[in-house]
Each structure stands twice: as C-alpha cells, then as structure tokens.
User: Which sequence fits this backbone?
C-alpha cells in the first residue's frame, strides 16, 4: 500500500483539482497516463529523494471531478490539462519545476512546456504516447472503449473488449499490455467516457517545428517491447527535440528502475543549476572587482 503525502484541492474552472505533495526540494511534477490517476505516478516514484514530488489527478481523472452538475460544453484536451498544472503551480507559489509523465502524460507535459516555457526547467518522459493518431493504435482502442461505455456502460464495454479479435491477439502476445485497458475500465473516470474519447482525439500540437523550438533539457525513456506505448514515439521525439537524450530498454522495467532513472536525471539537473549559479556568482564578483579597481584609480 502506498503511504500518503499532503493531499490538497483547489478550484480550477469547472473542476475540483486533487493533487498530492511529498518530500522537499526542487518541485518535480509527474503526470499519469490517460485513464489512470496519480496512484500510477506514485507507484513508479514512491521513495524519490531530494525533490518535492507533486502528483496530480488531471481533470476528469481520479478525484479531480467536475464541480458542477451541468454537462461540460468545452472539450477535454491537453490544453485544459496543461492549464490545470499551471493552476497547481500558481496555488503552490512555484515559479519553475521539472515536469515528467508516462504515456499520454508526456503529451500533456509537452503542451504545458509549449504554453508556459518559463515554468519548465526539465522534462522526463517514460513511454511517450498520444503524439499522433496515425501512429497510435492505443488512441483508436481507447476511443472505441469510450464509445462502448457510452452505449452500454462499463460491463458492456469490458465484455465487448474481451470478444474483440485484436484484443485477443494483444492478450496472447502482451498480457501486461492487455491488462492496461482492463485497468482503465475499472478506474472511476471510465464512467466519464468523454474524457477518454476527447483526449484520445487530441493530437493537435505535435509539429516538428514546435518540438524544435523547445529549448529544455529532456530525458526520454522508451520500452522496446511495450505494445501500449511503443518506443517509436520516444525515437520520434528524440529526433526533433534538440536538447533530448534517449534511453531504450528491452522490456518494461520495475519501479526500482524508474526511480533510479528519475533520481539520476533530477540529480544532473541540480548539478547544472548549481554550476550555472556558481558561474553567475563568479561573474558578479569579477565585475565588482573591476569596478573597485577602476574607482581606486
């Protein structure tokens, strides 16, 4: 069982946003995959040291529920999710953070970086996805699940999914991948089928030009044998993000490996920040010495 941190809630538009803060240090916001919630983030990074870990139930997920009884008119989108993250940073008085995500959480992190570049000091991605409907059978399958939920509810969607030949092939070749979709249906947000269908459709920001403009240090981790979030997305991102590094692992790794990678990357960012601060201080001292020397003459 996961230990608890400080759970907080704020009002964000139509939503009551729920998020959790653990530890102290430089803020590190880590985003869950589509259809999941902050428990997924915590299961990967519980025990992280040297950083203040912030995990958020994005709008329509987990405990971040719509505060009104009216049907939302505006669609769910990565832009909405990015603005929710920004609202949390504002509420906590955080000027800058390291941002990370898994699966479609990486797409939201990219949108956040595009909209609020001054807020993001680094990016850490595990299994990027949601970057292109053309490349992503995951988006198509989630949209199909949302349609089935809308037509007949959760049980109907699960029964139809199990009868689907494509899902049967997935279950035989990648049992862990097939379990992702079953877990998705058992999360509370599956009842809000609009979250799944509209987010699966939102692949609007991932132009090569936009990616090349992101001047932020980025670590991308892909799993070669992951059928849910194929490594092709990680390779594609790395190709166009100038300040990125790519690590491809043979198979999905246990929590300890994710924690190790996150700790190493966050430590490297701290070292870079410390070195930059030292250089600025040296320049300041040098300028002050020159001023004193000139005044003495």
Assistant:
């Amino acid at each position: 069982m996961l230990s608890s941190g400080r759970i907080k809630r704020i009002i964000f538009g139509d939503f009551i946003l729920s998020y959790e803060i653990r530890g102290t240090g430089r803020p590190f916001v880590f985003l869950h995959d589509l259809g999941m919630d902050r428990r997924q983030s915590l299961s990967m990074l519980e025990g992280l040291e040297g950083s203040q870990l912030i995990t958020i139930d994005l709008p329509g997920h987990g405990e971040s529920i719509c505060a009104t009884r009216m049907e939302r008119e505006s669609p769910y989108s990565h832009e909405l999710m990015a603005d929710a993250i920004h609202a949390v940073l504002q509420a906590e008085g955080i000027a800058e953070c390291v941002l990370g995500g898994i699966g479609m959480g990486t797409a939201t992190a990219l949108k956040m970086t595009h909209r609020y570049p001054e807020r993001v000091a680094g990016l850490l991605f595990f299994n990027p996805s949601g970057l292109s409907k053309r490349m992503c059978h995951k988006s198509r399958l989630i949209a199909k699940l949302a349609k089935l939920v809308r037509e007949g509810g959760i049980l109907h969607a699960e029964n139809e999914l199990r009868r689907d030949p494509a899902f049967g092939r997935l279950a035989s070749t990648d049992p862990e991948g097939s379990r992702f979709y079953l877990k998705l249906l058992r999360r509370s947000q599956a009842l809000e089928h609009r979250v799944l269908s509209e987010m699966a459709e939102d692949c609007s920001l991932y132009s090569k030009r936009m990616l090349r403009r992101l001047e932020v240090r980025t670590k991308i981790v892909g799993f070669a044998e992951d059928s849910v979030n194929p490594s092709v997305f990680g390779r594609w991102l790395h190709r166009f993000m100038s300040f990125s590094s790519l690590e491809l692992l043979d198979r999905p790794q246990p929590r300890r490996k994710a924690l190790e990678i996150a700790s190493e990357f966050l430590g490297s960012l701290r070292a870079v920040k410390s070195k930059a601060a030292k250089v600025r201080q040296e320049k300041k001292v040098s300028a002050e010495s020159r001023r004193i020397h000139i005044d003495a003459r």
Observations:
- Confidence is low (pLDDT under 50) at residues 275-282.
- Strands lie at 6-12, 15-22, 26-31, 51-57, 65-66, 97-103, 120-128, 218-223, 244-249.
- The radius of gyration is 21 Å.
